[in-house]
Specification:
Elements lengths: L19 E4 L6 E5 L3 E5 L5 E4 L2 E2 L2 H14 L3 E6 L2 E10 L9 E6 L15 E2 L9 H10 L7 H10 L7 H14 L11 H6 L2
Antiparallel strand pairs: 1-2, 1-9, 2-5, 3-4, 6-7, 7-8
Length: 200
């Protein structure tokens, strides 16, 4: 195997050596460190299903949140410093009290600065059967860095790989809002006009 090709079948500049690709239902793939597979369920025919718990870097977590918010009718996100706040419009704290507030989940980074979505199910990419097109490869190469500037590349990738399809303008608006509303004085600034229009 050539030195620039990783065990997962992608060039070194597309995916970090310690990361694999995972996705939620009807979502694009995102890079993450993968934990050990955990038994999830089995069907009547005896086939066993396993799940993994991916750990995402901050910049990838931002794009996961942007993607899910753009395609969900009930999940909303905001940053509070380094913590990601998840609001679920459909969930209430007490089923008997319809006036109770939004269900809120606070995701804190672990010691390595990575984030876990503990109640979400993720699918691992099958490198033998699932091919990545040029748009996906370009976006994953951007996400392999910790401060991607090519916003349009990732926006196009997300828009083309979600169902229902995400509107690129909505993705940019959500990204700008997440960065504007963050409570962290050291959080990345909102994307500049250069990033948005000349990022490629």
């Amino acid at each position: 195997m050539p030195d620039n090709i990783q065990p997962h079948g992608l060039p070194a500049d597309v995916l970090r050596v310690d990361e694999g690709l995972v996705r939620g239902d009807d979502q694009p793939y995102f890079p993450a460190q993968l934990g050990e597979p955990t038994f999830a369920a089995h069907e009547e025919a005896g086939r066993r299903y396993y799940t993994v718990t991916p750990r995402f870097r901050r910049v990838v977590t931002e794009w996961v949140a942007i993607t899910v918010e753009a395609t969900s009718d009930h999940l909303r996100f905001r940053w509070d410093g380094d913590d990601l706040i998840v609001n679920d419009d459909d969930a209430v704290h007490d089923d008997t009290d319809p006036t109770s507030g939004l269900a809120v989940e606070r995701l804190r980074p672990d010691a390595d600065g990575r984030y876990v979505f503990p109640t979400w199910l993720w699918h691992v990419r099958d490198a033998a059967t699932e091919r990545l097109d040029d748009t996906a490869r370009a976006a994953l190469a951007v996400l392999a860095t910790d401060e991607p500037l090519h916003i349009d590349t990732v926006t196009r990738y997300v828009a083309e790989n979600t169902y229902p399809a995400a509107d690129p303008h909505t993705l940019r608006d959500i990204r700008a809002r997440h960065r504007t509303l963050t409570g962290s004085p050291t959080a990345p600034a909102a994307a500049t006009e250069f990033e948005e229009t000349h990022g490629e």
